[in-house]
Amino acid sequence: MTSVTELETADVFDMWEILNTESDNEENLQESENKSWCVKWFLSMWAQLSLKSQDKGKAKWVVTVTVLIVILFLGLVLISVRETEKRKEVEGYPAWEEIVNQVKRIEENHSELVSVQTIGRSLEGKPIQRVSVSAKPESKGPLVWIVCGLHAREWASPLFCLHILNGLVQDLPSESELQKVTFQVVPVANPDSYVFGMSGDLENRLKRKNMADSGCSDPLHNGVDLNRNFPVGFNLSLRSLRDCTPVRGTRDLFCGCSNTYGGRQPFSEPETRVLRDALTNEPPWLLLDVHTSFGAWMTPPVSRPSRHSEHKDAWNIKFVTDFLEHNFDVSYKSGETSSVYWEMVGGTMVDWVYEELGVVRTYILELISGCKEGDDADDVCWFQFPAEIAREEVLPPAWAGLKLLVKEALRQDFKHL
Ligand SMILES: [Zn+2]
What we know:
By secondary structure, this protein is α/β, with parallel strands linked by helices. The protein has helices spanning 4-25, 29-52, 56-89, 96-109, 156-171, 191-197, 238-243, 270-281, 318-328, 337-340, 349-355, 380-383, 387-413, and strands at 114-121, 127-134, 143-148, 182-186, 245-246, 253-254, 286-299, 333-336, 361-368. The chain has 2 domains: 4-89; 96-197 and 258-413, Zn peptidases (Aminopeptidase, 3-Layer(aba) Sandwich), CATH 3.40.630.10. Strands 1, 2, 3, 4, 7, 8 and 9 form a 7-stranded mixed β-sheet that branches. The chain has a two-stranded antiparallel sheet with strand order 5-6. The longest helix is centred in the N-terminal third of the chain and has 34 residues, at 56-89. Zinc ion (ZN) binds at residues 151, 154, 291.
C-alpha cells in the first residue's frame, strides 16, 4: 500500500523532472541551470517541510522560513543592483593600456612636439613613461614636470595628465608663453596598482599604495605609500602611526597595513627610485604633483611649517584659486600644505623636490571631487567620480589654472625669456 507521504514525495520528484525538461529548452543553458537549481532546491525544501508539517504550528514555521528566504533573496538582488550602478558610475576612465596607447597616438600625430620615453619600470616591470612636450625640442627651456597617479585610486589624476597632453598639442602653437618651457609629463607613476584597481572586486578600486609586500594579508592594504617613501621627514606621518597595531609580545608596531605606510626606508620602492633618478637628471624649474579629491592648490613644506618669509612670492598662488572662482565658479583652497591639511606629513615627493633638489616652485594640486553624493573620503565615488564630470567640469578649469600659474611664474622668474 502506498502511503500519503510516498505519493507526495513522488510529486516532488515529478516537479524536478518538469523543471529539468524546461531548463533544457532554455537558450542560455548555463544560466538557466543555475536558476533552476535554486528553484529546485527551494521547492524541494518547501515540499519536504510541507510533508512534515501536518499540524498548524509547523505550517507557521514553514511560512516564516519562506518569508525569511524571500527577504534574503531580495536583499541580495538589491546589493547586486547597487554594485552595478556603482560600476557604471566609474566607467569611462581609461585602463592603463589605453593610456599608453593614447600617449603613443599623441606622439605619432605630433612628433614635432612630443617624445615619449620610458624612464624606468614599476615593481611588476611595467614601463613608467615620461612624455616630453616642447615647441623647440632643440632648446628645451625651463622644465615643467607634472606627475600624475602616484596614488593609484585617484583616477582623475592620470586623466588630468592626458587632458594636459591633449591641451598642450592643441594650445602650444598659439600660446607663445607656453613655447618658452618644456613640459615633462608622467601620466601614471604607480601603474601596477592602477591596473590592480581596475580589476576584480569593486573594493580593489580603493587601492592607494603600490604592489609591494608590506606584510599585510589584505591585498587592498598591502604595499607602500609612494608619497611617503621619499626621505624628507620620512616616517613622520601621524596618520600612519594611528593605523599601526602593536606586535604581540613586543614593543614594536606593525604598520604594513596602514594606507600611509612609507616602506622600510626612503626610496625602497622602484617607482620612487625612477622618479628620483629622472628628476635628478633633469631637474624641474616647476613641478606639479597631481592628486584628488581634496580641492586645493598647495605649496611645500608638507612635513613642517614654513619659515618666516620663505619663498613667499613663489608660494603665493591665491591668484590661481581666485581666477578659478571668478572664471569657472570652481572653489579651491590654497596655501601651505601643512596648514591646509591641518597636519604635517613626512616622506612626500614634493618636500624632497623642494628641500633636496632645491626646486622652489613645487606645488601640489588636489583636484576637486566631482562626486555628487556626499563627501565620504573612503567612498569609491570620492576618488572615482563619473569620468564625464571629470572631463567636463573638473579638468578644463584645472588646466586653465595650471597654464596661468606657469605663465605668471615665467614672468616672475625669467623676465628675459
Ligand atoms: Zn593622493
